[in-house]
Amino acid sequence: MRSRPNRPSTRRTILAGLLASALVATALTVAAQASVPPPPPGWTTIWSDDFNGASGSLPSSANWIIDTGHSYPGGPANWGTGEVQSYTNSPNNLSLDGAGNLRITPRRDSAGNWTSGRIETQRSNFKPPAGGVLAMESRLQMPNVTGNAALGYWPAFWALGSPYRGNYWNWPGIGEFDIMENVNGINSVWGVLHCGVNPGGPCNETTGLGASRACPGTSCQSGFHTYRFEWDTSISPNQFRWYVDGQQFHSISQGQLPADTWNNMTSHAGYFILLNLAIGGAFPDALNGPTPRPETVPGHPLVIDYVAVSTRGGGGGDPTTPPTTPPGGGSAYSTIQAESFSQQGGVGVETTTDSGGGQNLMQVGNGDWALYRGVNFGSSAARQFIGRVASGAAGGVSGLVEVRLDSRSNPPIGSFAIANTGGWQSWRTVPANITGVTGVHDVYLTFTSGQPADFVNLNWFTFSQ
């Protein structure tokens, strides 16, 4: 979760439950897209940059503003976060690579001074059409460095409310969406909302309301991944959603925040997008103590393939009436990958041999749980829960896979029992009836057994009407 780009310097409190373990990156070369890919059916691209251009050239001045120095004029020092680098407009820090990518590269001189790059869109009016949805997306590779060599690295893809320009002291009320941020080479993406007042307030500043997860497949550092944020006004309450490679890992509903807080960050002209690679500051320091260190290795770039903004729907419809069929991504009726949890307790993941590949929750036992935020059941009640499970539990060991809404302490709305299926990768699909449910809810899967032994693997789940 990101310490703010431009605000009075404050030390962040990082939620330990959101941290992922660092992994050693492996070398992987992934080609850039030749151009920005077309949007999904029903979406329209309204702005994009594919970073095609001559090697060594700066990004398009028609699209981007290059930030320089240690702050905005008149704004908080060190960009309000305690980061140590100076941003420059030098191609050594910020340039196209001639292969369809923008590279933001941190450098350190012989005196130990760091430089890096930061850009923001000329446009500052990105917001959804009335009753529609806005998406901001980038395909990028985090700096390919891990361990002690990565201490202090802080790449980010994010957006700030337009009233911030020229003021620089009205954060976080104007809103901030951290779509992708990462620190210290950890194999994890953080998605965070900042809003309200600082410190404290409804968004728990300076921490914000965030979630994190490991990147699917290849690590965040060793491969390209697609990071996406959606602002949905087609449903009520409205919703923010965060994705990595199409897998939702975080959401915030309008109903979770005071009406004036939501209005202050959504009623202005819109947002501008930023990309930067900071060195040091409150977030990396909170995890590993003061950074950067002498062992921190400069020269590992944040590599950005493209940035695109798209919209769907709108045009005068009533945004307060939820559709009968919920939209994709956060829909209860799409396949929800079990490893796409926002938070968990006692749960690990492993590569699955089930059809479709990916990962599954592994050898889950009594008291374990996983949270999936902002699942949209729409206006027609779901009445069945379906899970893809396997078990290699010993004879006599069994347990329940339970569904709870909005709190782990709430009673289950349904469950099914599972025992040995023939092995931990011997998969079957099991249905269960549930109490009818509509609207948008945080879904908790809880696992209960009378024995201490692990009793189930879970690959995916869904709901039906």
Topology (elements, then pairings):
Layout (H helix, E strand, L loop, with lengths): L42 E7 L14 E3 L19 E2 L6 E3 L5 E3 L2 E2 L5 E3 L1 E4 L10 E10 L11 E9 L14 E6 L7 E6 L14 E5 L11 E8 L6 E6 L2 E7 L5 H8 L4 E9 L2 H7 L13 E12 L22 E2 L5 E3 L2 E4 L7 E6 L4 E8 L5 E10 L7 E7 L8 E5 L4 E15 L2 E9 L7 E9 L1
Parallel strand pairs: 3-7
Antiparallel strand pairs: 1-18, 2-8, 4-5, 5-18, 6-7, 8-17, 9-14, 9-18, 10-11, 10-17, 11-12, 12-13, 14-15, 15-16, 19-29, 20-23, 21-22, 22-29, 23-28, 24-27, 24-29, 25-26, 25-28
What does this structure look like?
With 465 residues, this protein is mostly beta strands. Helix content is 3%, strand content 39%. The strands form 5 sheets. Strands 1, 4, 5, 9, 14, 15, 16 and 18 form an 8-stranded antiparallel β-sheet that branches. The chain has a 7-stranded antiparallel β-sheet with strand order 2-8-17-10-11-12-13, with no helix packed on it. Strands 19, 21, 22, 24, 27 and 29 form a 6-stranded antiparallel β-sheet that branches. Residues 1-31 and 316-329 have low confidence and may be disordered.
